[in-house]
UniProtKB/TrEMBL annotation, chain A:
Biological role stated in the UniProt entry: Part of the binding-protein-dependent transport system for D-xylose. Probably responsible for the translocation of the substrate across the membrane.
Listed GO CC annotations: plasma membrane
Region (Disordered): 1-25
Subcellular location: Cell membrane
GO molecular function: transmembrane transporter activity
Name the UniProt record assigns to this protein: Xylose transport system permease protein XylH
Organism: Streptomyces aurantiogriseus
Automatic annotation (TrEMBL), chain B:
The protein's name in its UniProt record: ABC transporter ATP-binding protein
Keyword Nucleotide-binding: yes
Cross-referenced Pfam families: ABC_tran (PF00005)
Source taxon at top rank: Bacteria
Keywords, comma-separated and alphabetical: ATP-binding, Nucleotide-binding
């Protein structure tokens, strides 16, 4: 959760604070004061970021825990962490498209198509699993690229292009599956393992938590050293300490919980690594900067001689690829592929997750981590409803309410940001 | 002529569909000079800027850079020559921060990743030379004031060390103090030897700053003036098209300046 600690960016180190030996408690409280000040500034500027979704998540967890004490049990949370992966990976792709200010309606169909391609090649034709897996993912990449190029060249809004895609890919999937209906996957195969494998050794989860926290520390520390060397404003050591501490506390808490059930699920590890990797791509590479720029102003990007066509094509290609990967995880969870794969509320949940997590519908604002947070909210509601025997109808209404609230917050924060800008 | 002008246009035409927006435009920009481009609304001033900056390439005509003919087909071509443009709408991405906007399209990379630190350092040193009230470099541009945004847009155009700077109504949206600041800035750029094309509606700005003025009317040249000797009335009547009543008609060609 880098977003959370980003607020400390403006907190500058003073020379005497460096040499003195501050009282640790006071040090933390000063950092927290810095956060509060930064938060107030962001609140008035209409940049709420991660805050609303974390509050909603906390509320959901408190409510369901009070209704049923098994809700926050290691077993339920561990299952929850695997259940969010399939749709969550699709939502990560949606984040890319939303950053452009566009929508991709084809991700559900593409996820079904990829799963069908894999199942038919592997189970029916006997192609090795790894090869079928690659072909399945590439099918998603190709579908996304075709849509992206059409969108970029014809300038038809992406939601219309992908609506056509939704129907097309679904038709192709049905044709590939033929009359066989449901194909059962190998229960011990590679794809099945994606969601059924757990690192039962406690050391893995703790070790990775330690690695994660160390990486955060080292990156922050290195950045500080480089800035210090040329006399630029930089984070204070204690800000880095608090930031690393926060990451470490969250990581070790999650590791502890998971180890109390079956250990770290492979699926969750893949999900988090993917999200972190794509977050780096979006925020620290030339390509990612172009995606944000296009979401901010197409005309400004064009005049800065960005290749609008290429970026748009690439974004929908990423979205198609992520949809395919997500589809394979969803198939893995139920170890079967059927004509209903990729249909139903999957598409809507993926889009809802990205938006609930704080990615703006208007483009240009959001991170891949919003897919994780948004999926946690949606899946927590689903899981809590199941555990308390609430009818599905109520679940839909509540998820709808949360989504509506997220969109309203997005819209209001955008308006207040514009008003703030004109002031 | 001892040295050819930095940039010269001869017989430039541009149409949008059936509308002939620019017809046979002549223009010269010399190093260390501010040329004011004047004209009524719809006279084709902004289109001419787009032609020079490669956003909307010319249909016909010759563009000369230091005396040799060049083709400007894309924004990239203009940038490579050393032409920088500050558009009327500034063309900033509101969601990106100051550093992100300044380096958009030419990010500095380190091991394949964006080198935020180096970009921030250069941004800081550039802005410190341009303005006294430094904006928060990490705040999204949408949250800055109009003057700050104008400064960011000008700073961005200066990043590539251009030889010619095109400014499309840089002071239109600014208050008095900010206008003065921007005019001072343009003055200093001229002293550094840049050729500046300044579009403005404000005759006060033009009188204070420009060396020469070129007037467009309905997509054609309608006179060239030496700002120091021509009267404001002469220039204005040329803009409004009342030139027939002026005793001494303005020179019809560049050579007659």
């Amino acid at each position: 959760m880098r977003k959370m600690t980003d607020n400390t960016r403006t907190e500058l180190a003073t020379p005497d604070a460096e040499t003195g030996r501050p009282h640790p408690g006071r040090a933390v409280s000063r950092v927290v004061e810095g956060w509060v000040a930064a938060f107030r500034r962001k609140l008035s500027a209409g940049e709420l970021g991660w805050l609303p979704v974390v509050l909603v998540l906390a509320a959901v967890w408190i409510i369901f825990q009070s209704l049923n004490e098994n809700f926050l049990s290691p077993r339920n949370l561990s299952n929850l962490s695997v259940d969010i992966v399939g749709t969550g990976l699709i939502a990560v792709g949606i984040v890319f498209v939303l950053l452009l200010g566009e929508l991709d309606l084809s991700v559900g169909s593409i996820s079904g198509l990829a799963a069908a391609v894999f199942a038919v090649l592997n189970v029916n034709s006997g192609v090795p699993e790894w090869l079928a897996l690659i072909v399945g993912v590439l099918a998603g990449t190709v579908a996304g690229t075709v849509q992206g190029y059409s969108f970029a060249k014809t300038r038809v809004p992406a939601f219309v292009v992908t609506l056509a895609g939704l129907l097309t890919w679904n038709g192709i999937m049905l044709a590939i599956l033929g009359t066989s209906g449901t194909i059962n996957l190998d229960e011990n195969g590679l794809v099945a393992k994606l969601t059924s494998y757990y690192f039962t050794n406690d050391a893995v989860a703790y070790g990775l938590a330690a690695v994660g926290a160390s990486v955060v520390f080292l990156v922050s520390y290195q950045d500080r050293r480089r800035r210090q060397a040329v006399g630029m404003p930089h984070r204070s050591l204690r800000a880095i300490g608090v930031r690393t501490g926060a990451v470490a506390v969250i990581a070790f808490a999650v590791a502890y919980l998971l180890n109390r059930f079956q250990g770290l699920p492979l699926a969750l590890l893949i999900f988090l690594v993917t999200v972190a990797g794509l977050d780096i791509v979006l925020r620290h590479t030339h390509y990612g900067r172009q995606v944000y720029a296009l979401g901010g102003s197409v005309e400004a990007s064009r005049r800065a001689s960005l290749s609008v066509t290429w970026v748009r094509t690439a974004v929908l290609a990423v979205s198609g690829t992520m949809a395919a990967i997500g589809g394979l995880f969803l198939a893995s969870r139920i170890t079967s592929v059927s004509q209903s794969s990729g249909s139903g509320v999957l598409l809507l949940n993926a889009i809802a997750a990205a938006v609930i997590g704080g990615t703006s519908l208007f483009g240009g604002r959001g991170t891949t981590w919003s897919a994780v947070l948004g999926m946690l909210v949606i899946q927590s509601i689903a899981s809590g409803m199941a555990i308390t025997d609430t009818p599905t109808a109520v679940q839909s209404v509540i998820t709808g309410g949360v989504l509506f609230a997220a969109v309203v917050i997005d819209s209001l924060s955008r308006r207040s940001q514009e008003a703030h800008g004109r002031a | 002529m001892p040295t050819p002008p930095l940039l010269a246009l001869h017989g430039v035409c541009k149409r949008y569909g059936v509308v002939e927006v620019l017809k046979d435009i002549e223009l010269e920009i010399h190093a260390g000079q501010v040329v004011a481009l004047l004209g009524d609304n719809g006279a084709g001033k902004s289109t001419l800027v787009k032609v020079i900056s490669g956003v909307a390439p010319a249909d016909k005509g010759v563009v000369e850079w230091e005396g040799r003919a060049v083709h400007i087909k894309r924004p990239h071509d203009a940038r490579d020559l050393g032409i920088a443009t500050v558009y009327q709408d500034l063309a900033l991405c509101g969601n990106l921060d100051v550093v992100g906007n300044l380096f958009l399209g030419r990010e500095i990379r380190r091991f394949g990743f964006l080198d935020e630190m180096e970009m921030e350092r250069l941004t800081r040193s550039l802005l410190e030379r341009l303005t006294r009230n430094l904006p928060d470099l990490r705040a999204p541009v949408v949250s800055l004031s109009g003057g700050q945004r104008q400064t960011v847009a000008i700073a961005r155009s200066l990043l590539a060390n251009p030889r010619v700077l095109l400014l499309d109504e840089p002071t239109a949206a600014l208050g008095f103090k900010q206008t003065t600041e921007v005019l001072d800035l343009i003055d200093r750029l001229r002293d550094r030897g840049l050729g500046v094309l300044l579009i403005s509606h404000n005759m006060g700005d033009v009188k204070a700053l420009a060396d020469r003025a070129a007037v467009l009317r309905l997509g054609r040249n309608n006179g060239f003036f030496d700002v120091n000797t021509a009267s404001q009335e002469q220039i204005i009547s040329s803009i409004t098209g009342a030139t027939e009543n002026v005793p001494r008609p303005p020179a019809p060609h560049e050579s007659a300046w």
